[in-house]
């Protein structure tokens, strides 16, 4: 029964249709048509490509080049000194770098956690509550509120001695509740929780837009067949949302890996360096300590790690993403 | 019998809905707290912003003074507000257009090197913007984009994220419609404008909302690439309330509350687009 | 393929023209950098270069800092009035006097080739870093040329290995601010000479209450200096590293750490460090709301004691010198710091800029009513100027302020190594472990010494 609304069906039909059409087309016009397609392809992607080239790719490659030098950007081009892989050697020799990398990897957890919450809320909000519009705004609020306000509210709720969270924990019989942001063993967890809180709203509205894209007749057909809510979610909602999930996972992990604004506002890497991340170290080295070459080598390693994580996902997508 | 069963079902359904709504509201409160704190702080005198235990309703009201200070004080808040609206609107329009075109190219046109190009584009998203600031700053000075709104708009407009997001949505747009249009002799341009864009309205609106908010809240880019005060955006303006004597949270929060209004408007208008967007189900039926 | 590349070329050309169109709308500032070398002579009218002949008479000095243009420009005008033929252009880097952000902007401007002659540096760490990068011009020849006796002119000595790279503008000393109302209530005198032990006794006596409304005797801010208070009162060798020699395994550092521990954990007379960092407590609200009765702070807080718009004063503030480490130790000394002004090495108007900076750091400071490193500054005039500016001059205890200012002694300026930032981060991290109860004093000192030695060795 359930198989009758197999989501793959439509997709498969689509693909077959394209293939048939293409075959006909190709026979008809052959190379001229291919060339026209190619031109159209470049025309449509051209503006983005040029923009990316100028504003990101060229600066990025320049920055990569600087990683092989001993240089401070304030001193002028003439003082650049080629240093081979010296920066990288120094980088891997420090504990601080490995430390930051581990923190980065721990913080990545906030992405799947936030996405799971967002997906559940998206389904509940679109189908099971009154005033869905209001809830979208509410859950999006931390993302548009000033980051200072978000940090302050967090500080208040998790105040080590007088905050409501610790008061509750103490009432529950925990004599020495964690000091959260002031506790080297809990500061990173605190940052992680806060990240979920702030970024969940984004995943939520993207999921809601994704839900909007699922053809209603699939659900209608399922209801006629008497499918339960869970079965509908498992066989329609989740599979058809996989492109959205894939997007959120990739960009979420990248974004999480390279951002440090929250850490700058909240902890400045402390206490006892327990919340440093690579991007934060890179910023400090580059703009505070003025070691451009060294900071660039951090950027290169950061990029390589992100690229690796993304490529693994990219290859893995065939196993679970339905287009 | 059947009717009665349907009746109780309906009641049970309603009851469940009310309960879920109530439960969600409770959870929602936690998400509203930052905003409530912002409001509350913006009504207080500076010295009472951080008193413990927290006073959600101010003891002493300083509302008029704070908001007057923000809107008519030494900082030209009105001008910064207007600048921000300009920059955010133009960035959003440019970014949505460029991203949608690119996403269409990457999903609906078959050309050589397509996947490789996309991966290169995506790869540029994998580096923290701070890592490219120095080269970018030099390029901006060289191109004359330093200290212009155009510089900000272009930087935000060519953001990669939108291309990726829209690409994922365009993948879900049935090729049948596009193909049938092709049979009618329509080229890619027509298919893009007449079919893809209307179909993707929820996705476009969602990305538009996000891009607008991110541009509006961006501090780093305008800080680096603007120096003329008449070009300042609202985030730079807000930053003026934190000087070397410390941050004046009452004023910063009054400014933040003022700054949130356009975001709410954009969010609500955008979400309306998402809801009103044609569901594919409707088309297919 | 061919057509595709043609398309690309066309697109790039279109984009380029779009960009240049956008750019031309506002590039006055950018062009100054683009002109390169001789841009200073033209001072705005960059017509076609034929005014180069007449341009030689007018010198334009470009100065950049994080200070507000409104506060600097009147001084520049005063200078221009006295020195015809010289124009000083001011580049305001930020509009909220945030020196950290300002320096970041300045670095980028310098990197992109903006013509700047004079820059202001917010402290000795920034000065050392940029002097170390050879960004600043050595001033020795200019000083000799003028025949200046540097030591007779300025309180602080900016020389690094015998070379001067900057002149001192403002002078920063450190002292203790005391809530005199609470002192009176507790029957305590305003100290004129004291030790850390007495400081801790004061703090204990000034602590009152329990729970959220508890008020503390003192508050230590999060800056690194609050972890080496026992070094800040030393007349010399008051850095973590002095002349390449580590100063961590020392009685001064032990005193510094122990006094923090005693106040927080034994006497419970200091705001707990966990609260300070988790709540991002700032010293102004903590002091002016009465949450802490004493804070250790610097010269910039003298006028704040008379109230500001955002932090109005509601009690009298008295001033006391930094406590000394033990009875009989030299007392009244304070680490010196301040703003410094230097000439960029690539400036082509070094002599004119030097002349201007000499005036700026002496008479200019007087005009600006700053607490300066100029030996001829008039302390009484400075105090009355401060009192004239603040909303509540009656809350500044003039007796103790005058006594403190006339008796305070500036320690020799200790120019930290270029890698001072690394040292402070490493040291702070160990000190945090100590105060948060993760390791004892001896482990802290030993670990800190080892970590810092690694940094020193790496920078040999």
From TrEMBL, chain B:
Lipid bilayer topology: Multi-pass membrane protein
Keyword Disulfide bond: no
Tree of life domain: Bacteria
Residues that span the membrane, as ranges: 21-43, 80-104, 116-143, 149-166, 199-216, 248-269
Classification via InterPro entries: MetI-like, MetI-like_sf
Domain ABC transmembrane type-1 per the UniProt entry, residue ranges: 81-270
Gene3D superfamilies: MetI-like (1.10.3720.10)
GO BP annotations, alphabetical order: transmembrane transport
Keywords, in A-Z order: Cell membrane, Membrane, Transmembrane, Transmembrane helix, Transport
Keyword Transport: yes
Subcellular location per the Swiss-Prot or TrEMBL entry: Cell membrane
UniProt family annotation: Belongs to the binding-protein-dependent transport system permease family.
Protein name: Carbohydrate ABC transporter permease
TrEMBL record, chain C:
Superkingdom: Bacteria
SUPFAM superfamilies according to UniProt: Periplasmic binding protein-like II
UniProt keyword terms in alphabetical order: Signal
Region (Disordered): 30-54
Keyword match Signal: yes
UniProt entry tagged with the keyword Signal: yes
Compositionally biased intervals (Gly residues): 31-42
InterPro entries hit by this protein: Bact_solute-bd_prot1 (IPR050490), SBP (IPR006059)
Pfam families: SBP_bac_1
Signal peptide as annotated in the record: 1-21
PANTHER family per UniProt: ARABINOSE-BINDING PROTEIN-RELATED, DIACETYLCHITOBIOSE BINDING PROTEIN DASA
Protein name, UniProt field: Extracellular solute-binding protein
């Amino acid at each position: 029964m359930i198989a009758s609304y197999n989501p793959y069906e439509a997709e498969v039909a689509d693909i077959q249709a394209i293939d048939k059409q293409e075959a006909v087309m190709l026979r008809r016009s052959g190379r001229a048509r291919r060339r026209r397609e190619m031109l159209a392809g470049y025309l449509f992607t051209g503006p983005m490509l040029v923009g990316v080239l100028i504003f990101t790719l060229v600066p990025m490659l320049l920055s990569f080049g600087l990683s092989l030098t001993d240089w401070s950007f304030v001193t002028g081009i003439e003082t650049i000194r080629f240093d081979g892989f010296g920066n990288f050697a120094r980088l891997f020799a420090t504990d601080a770098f490995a430390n930051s990398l581990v923190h980065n990897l721990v913080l990545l957890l906030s992405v799947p956690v936030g996405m799971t919450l967002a997906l559940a809320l998206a389904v509940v909000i679109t189908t099971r509550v009154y005033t869905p519009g209001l809830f979208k705004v509410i859950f999006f609020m931390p993302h548009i509120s000033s980051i200072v306000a978000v940090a302050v509210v967090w500080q208040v709720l998790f105040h080590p001695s007088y905050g409501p969270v610790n008061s509750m924990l103490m009432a529950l019989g925990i004599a020495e509740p964690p000091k959260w942001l002031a506790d080297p063993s809990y500061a990173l967890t605190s940052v992680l929780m806060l990240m979920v809180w702030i970024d969940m709203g984004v995943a939520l509205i993207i999921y809601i837009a994704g839900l909007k894209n699922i053809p209603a007749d699939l659900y209608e057909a399922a209801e006629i067949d008497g499918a339960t809510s869970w079965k509908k979610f498992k066989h329609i909602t989740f599979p058809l949302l996989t492109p959205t999930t894939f997007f959120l996972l990739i960009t979420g992990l990248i974004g999480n890996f390279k951002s440090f604004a929250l850490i700058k506002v909240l902890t400045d890497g402390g206490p006892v360096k327990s919340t440093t991340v690579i991007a934060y170290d890179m910023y400090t080295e580059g703009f505070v300590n003025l070691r451009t070459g060294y900071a660039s080598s951090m950027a290169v390693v950061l990029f390589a790690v992100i690229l690796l994580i993304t490529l693994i996902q990219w290859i893995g997508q065939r196993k679970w993403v339905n287009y | 019998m059947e009717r009665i069963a349907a009746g109780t079902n309906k009641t049970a359904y309603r009851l469940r809905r009310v309960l879920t709504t109530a439960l969600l509201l409770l959870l929602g409160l936690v998400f509203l707290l930052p905003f409530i704190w912002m409001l509350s702080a913006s009504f207080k005198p500076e010295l009472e912003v951080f008193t413990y235990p927290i006073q959600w309703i101010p003891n002493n009201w300083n509302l008029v003074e704070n908001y007057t200070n923000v809107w008519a004080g030494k900082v030209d808040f009105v001008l910064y507000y207007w600048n921000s609206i300009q920059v955010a609107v133009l960035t959003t329009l440019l970014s949505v257009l460029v991203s949608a075109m690119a996403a269409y190219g990457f999903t609906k046109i078959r050309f050589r090197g397509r996947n490789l190009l996309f991966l290169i584009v995506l790869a540029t998203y994998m580096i923290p913007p701070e890592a490219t600031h120095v080269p970018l700053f030099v390029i901006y000075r060289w191109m004359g984009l330093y200290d212009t709104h155009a510089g900000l708009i272009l930087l935000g407009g060519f953001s990669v994220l939108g291309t990726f997001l829209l690409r994922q949505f365009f993948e879900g747009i049935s090729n049948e419609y596009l193909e049938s249009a092709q049979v009618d002799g329509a080229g890619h341009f027509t298919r893009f404008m007449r079919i893809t864009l209307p179909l993707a309205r929820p996705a476009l609106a969602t990305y538009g909302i996000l891009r607008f908010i991110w541009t509006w809240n961006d501090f780093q880019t305008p800080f680096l690439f603007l120096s003329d005060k008449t070009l300042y955006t609202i985030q730079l303006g807000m930053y003026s309330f934190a000087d070397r004597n410390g941050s004046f949270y009452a004023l910063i929060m009054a400014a933040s509350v003022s700054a949130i209004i356009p975001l709410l408007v954009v969010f609500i208008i955008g979400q309306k687009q998402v809801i009103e967007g044609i569901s594919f189900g409707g088309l297919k039926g | 393929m061919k057509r595709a590349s043609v398309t690309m070329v066309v697109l790039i050309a279109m984009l380029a023209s779009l960009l240049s169109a956008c750019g031309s709308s506002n590039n006055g500032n950018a062009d100054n950098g683009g002109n390169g070398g001789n841009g200073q002579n033209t001072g705005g009218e960059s017509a076609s270069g034929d005014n180069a002949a007449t341009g030689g008479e007018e010198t334009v000095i470009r100065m950049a800092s994080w200070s507000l243009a409104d506060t600097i420009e009147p001084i520049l005008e005063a200078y221009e009035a006295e020195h015809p033929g010289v124009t000083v252009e001011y580049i305001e880097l930020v509009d909220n006097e945030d020196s950290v952000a300002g320096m970041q902007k300045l670095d980028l401007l310098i990197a992109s080739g903006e013509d700047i002659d004079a820059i202001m540096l917010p402290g000795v760490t920034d000065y050392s870093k940029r002097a170390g990068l050879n960004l600043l011009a050595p001033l020795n020849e200019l000083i000799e040329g003028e025949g200046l006796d540097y030591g007779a002119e300025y309180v602080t000595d900016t020389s690094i290995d015998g070379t001067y790279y900057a002149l001192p503008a403002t002078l920063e000393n450190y002292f203790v601010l005391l809530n005199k109302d609470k002192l009176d209530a507790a029957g305590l005198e305003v100290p004129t000479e004291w030790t850390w032990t007495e400081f801790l006794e004061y703090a204990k006596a000034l602590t009152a209450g329990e729970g959220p409304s508890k008020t503390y005797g003192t508050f230590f801010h999060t800056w690194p200096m609050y972890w080496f208070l026992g070094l800040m009162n030393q007349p010399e060798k008051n850095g973590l590293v002095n002349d390449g020699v580590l100063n961590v395994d020392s009685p001064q550092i032990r005193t510094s750490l122990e006094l923090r521990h005693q106040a927080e954990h034994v006497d419970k007379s200091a705001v707990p460090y966990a609260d300070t960092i988790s709540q991002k407590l700032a010293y102004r609200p903590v002091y002016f709301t009465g949450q802490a009765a004493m804070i250790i702070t610097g010269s910039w807080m003298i006028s704040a004691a008379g109230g500001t718009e955002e932090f109005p004063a509601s009690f009298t503030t008295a001033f006391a010198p930094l406590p000394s480490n033990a009875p009989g130790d030299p007392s009244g000394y304070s680490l010196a710091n301040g703003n410094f002004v230097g000439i960029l090495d690539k400036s082509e108007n070094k002599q004119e800029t030097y002349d201007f900076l000499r005036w700026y750091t002496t008479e200019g400071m007087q005009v600006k009513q700053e607490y300066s490193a100029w030996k001829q500054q008039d302390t009484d005039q400075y105090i009355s100027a401060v009192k004239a500016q603040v909303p509540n001059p009656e809350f500044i205890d003039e007796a103790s302020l005058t006594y403190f200012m006339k008796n305070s002694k500036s320690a020799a300026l200790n120019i930290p190594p270029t890698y001072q930032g690394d040292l402070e981060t490493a040291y702070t991290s160990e000190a945090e472990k100590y105060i948060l109860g993760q390791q004892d004093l001896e482990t802290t000192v030993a670990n800190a010494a080892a970590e810092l030695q690694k940094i020193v060795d790496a920078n040999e």
